[in-house]
Amino acid sequence: MKVIDAIKESDKTLFSFEILPPLKGKGIDTLYAGIDPLMEFKPRFINVTYHREEFIYKKREKGYLEKVSIRKRPGTVGICAAIMNRYDIEAVPHLICGGFSREETENALIDLNFLGIDNVLALRGDARKAETNFVPDDSGHTYASELVEQIIHMNQGQFLEQEMKDATPTNFCVGVAGYPEKHFEAMNLKSDLKNLKRKIDLGAEYIVTQMFFDNNKFFEFVDRCRDMGIEAPIIPGLKPITTLKHIDFLPKTFHINLPEDLSDALEKCKSNEDVLQVGVEWGIQQTKELIAKGAPSVHFYTMGKSNAVKQIASAVF
Ligand code: FAD
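A: This is the predicted complex of the input protein with flavin-adenine dinucleotide.
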């Protein structure tokens, strides 16, 4: 089932979450161990992130450094198929522009289509760690909107080979990312929202937001989207803070702010256990309010750990 249909047919807020493929070398059981405890809350869909290759430098003989490309978390497509097979629920693969030519994108979408996967979250992806700006593949997409366009073309039976006749159209429901606190590269929120609107106008059907800790930021974002004519459902993304390390890591990495009430409470924490308690309590309050205000789904970023999400879901769903 398409995410958009699951949203439309439900009269209450759905529960959904995102997982990361395990690090290369780890078995899929580590992944199931994170998903199993959340199944009792009947997630309607599970997103699986996509991780671009990174360049690392390996020392070779005589001090030479060899640039090697490695993908630390491969397996997004296989994991989606495995989830649908094991749990009989929708898996939403993330597809990124970075590292993909247009043809590789087309081939990846053909694989997904053959596997019966109807949903895709279309993203640009971040710059590689060693690069300051996002660099697309030579014949790849620069912005997520171009990826959305390619997927919608395939839904209309238009593949890259113009001469191809009678191509069977794909049938993907496309979601895209939105940023209540603005994407860090955008000049301002207004220009970011114009770019978001472009993705929707090209055919994306719903938006999943970056994590945020202040619900007012989300509600203001939704209002601004509606004022700009973006009517698509907007799914809030939540990440429970669970460790002392998160207090620095999350704002730096995801370009988001922690509200003062939350940072005051976190400053008093002496251990990860203290942080987990504060993070879960905060997540419960956020989720309750989002549900009360009619969010289509509350989407949790598990980052490979389901404990805190389970505690929040137990209190709310
Ligand atoms: P875009 O929509 O292309 O926007 C990127 C920037 O370019 C924005 O500042 C935008 O305002 C600007 N822009 C857009 N179009 C134009 C234009 N035509 N002209 C000028 N400027 C423009 N990353 C991964 O690598 N793998 C994942 O699995 C992944 N999952 C994610 C899931 C969610 C829900 C979210 C919110 C993010 C995820 N990311 C993931 C991170 C994402 O790839 C980065 O935030 C990336 O920097 C931007 O991606 P985007 O799709 O929002 O890009």
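The CA atoms of residues 14 and 297 lie 4 Å apart. Residues 49-50, 52, 94, 96, 123-126, 143-145, 177, 183, 185-186, 192, 195, 208, 210, 237 surround flavin-adenine dinucleotide (CB under 6 Å).
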